[in-house]
Design goal:
It is built from 16 helices and 12 strands. By secondary structure, it is of the alpha/beta class. It folds into 2 domains: 175 residues, MOFRL domain (glycerate kinase, domain 1, 3-Layer(aba) Sandwich); 224 residues, Glycerate kinase, MOFRL-like N-terminal domain (Rossmann fold, 3-Layer(aba) Sandwich). The protein has a 6-stranded parallel β-sheet, sandwiched between helices. Strand 1, helix 3 and strand 2 form a beta-alpha-beta unit. Helix 7 crosses helix 9.
């Protein structure tokens, strides 16, 4: 018989595998350009992308990429610099400044290859004039905790940056720019992945100020002036290629489910509040289990994208843990329904896990150990709940990121 945990974990592993650099770069990688090739980049996949580029393109390469601590790779020519994520630090600022200085010295015969993936916004941090790192850190923390969507967060980031929103491409002129992207943004808007350092920014200062006001964030006069005086940046976007997306991960997982005679029902990329989405998905799973849904069991409900969490308490966890805990409460131990919710980068929020399993006995197992699911959800403490329930999923850094992956298995009744 099919083991639900093994099956769901195999789908997650398949989804991640389709988005790692060694599996997605060869298909979209252009021919190596002539002349000097300077490689730069930032994000959770940047080091693995740089390593794969060295494998595929013969001849000397140079440059540097920025990754989160613990996400490095052994590159021969390209320097890998580690910095803080999701809140930027001095290491990221120093690395971003070095990258900006380096590309400013290139000629028309040179080529910049920019390797971009999720996490790049925090890592490639270079505050605009008049803005301090401490102010950017504070604004980032408030936006992350407020439940703001990624496009809202990155809109603000671009206005407070000297390198994002096309400014890196402007600095690289007259060199040719090739941008290779592993996308973690719903809809795959290239101007939003890592806040689009090599892609035109058409957002306005008013949009950024509206977002800051919407989430009740206090800013200094210097920050307000920096945003007000910022100008949209239009650049020649050059050769921009998306190597892997959430859609690729979901399609791979759907094919794997079909191979096990499990019907995949994909909802695609989704956004919105993690708890609300969990309640919707629980309702759908219960309908399918009752025989009144859009598909018959056995099936697996798949979805990706990026949810948001309004941090109300001081617990530990992330978007996927929040979703999984709300889902477990809504399902209330319903037999024959199991689920997995994980971040494809291997790190869910401020935990050290990728995500969590949900099974019919998750609630009673945790309750027997003294964990109250509803109380822990209210304090955003999904990590402790699923640790108590023995339902954490730990992978370590996967060195890619196409955002969240969720799968709900509705099995046949015995």
């Amino acid at each position: 018989m099919l083991d639900p945990r093994q099956f769901l974990r195999s789908l997650f592993d398949t989804a991640v595998a389709t988005a790692v650099a060694e599996n997605c770069m060869q298909r979209w990688l252009p021919a190596r350009p002539g002349g000097r090739v300077f490689v730069i980049g930032a994000g959770k996949a940047a080091a693995s992308m740089a390593k794969e580029l060295e494998e595929q393109w013969q001849g000397p390469l140079e440059g540097r990429v920025i990754v989160p601590y613990g996400h490095g790779a052994n590159c021969r020519f390209i320097e890998v610099i580690e910095a803080s994520h999701p809140t930027p630090d001095e290491a990221g600022v120093a690395a971003a400044a070095t990258i900006l200085d380096s590309v400013s010295e290139l000629s028309v015969d040179d080529t910049v290859v920019c390797l971009i993936s999720g996490g790049g916004s925090a890592l490639m941090c270079l505050p605009a004039g008049g803005v301090t790192l401490a102010e950017k850190q504070d604004i980032t923390r408030h936006l992350l905790a407020s439940g703001a969507a990624i496009h809202e967060i990155n809109c603000v980031r671009k206005k407070l940056s000297a390198i994002k929103g096309g400014k890196l491409a402007s600095a690289s002129a007259p060199a040719n720019v090739i941008t290779l992207i592993i996308s973690d943004v719903p809809g795959n808007d290239t101007s939003m992945v890592a806040s689009g350092p090599t892609v035109s920014d058409r957002s306005s200062p008013a949009e950024a100020l509206d977002i800051i006001a919407r989430y009740g964030i206090s800013i200094s006069n210097d920050v307000r002036a920096a945003i007000t005086n910022s100008e949209p940046v239009t650049v020649v976007d050059g050769d921009v290629r998306i190597l892997a997306t959430s859609d690729d991960a979901l399609l791979a997982a759907a094919a794997a489910a079909t191979a096990h005679d499990i019907t995949p029902y994909s909802l695609g990329d989704l956004a919105g509040d993690a708890r609300s989405l969990a309640n919707e998905h629980a309702g759908l799973a219960l309908q399918i289990a009752a025989g009144t849904g859009p598909v018959e069991p056995p099936c697996v409900i798949l979805s990706g994208g990026e949810t948001t969490v309004n941090v109300r308490g001081g617990g530990r966890g992330g978007r996927n843990g929040e979703y999984a805990l709300a889902l477990a409460i809504a399902l209330d131990g319903r037999p024959h329904i199991h689920a997995l919710a994980c971040d494809t980068d291997g790190i869910d929020g401020n935990g050290d896990n990728a995500g969590c399993f949900v099974s019919p006995d998750s609630l009673p197992r945790a309750k027997a150990a003294g964990a109250d699911a509803r109380i822990m959800l209210e304090r955003n403490d999904s990590y402790e709940f699923f640790s108590t329930a023995l339902d954490l999923i730990s992978t370590g850094p996967t060195r890619t990121n196409v955002n969240d992956f969720r799968a709900i298995l509705v099995a046949d009744k015995d």
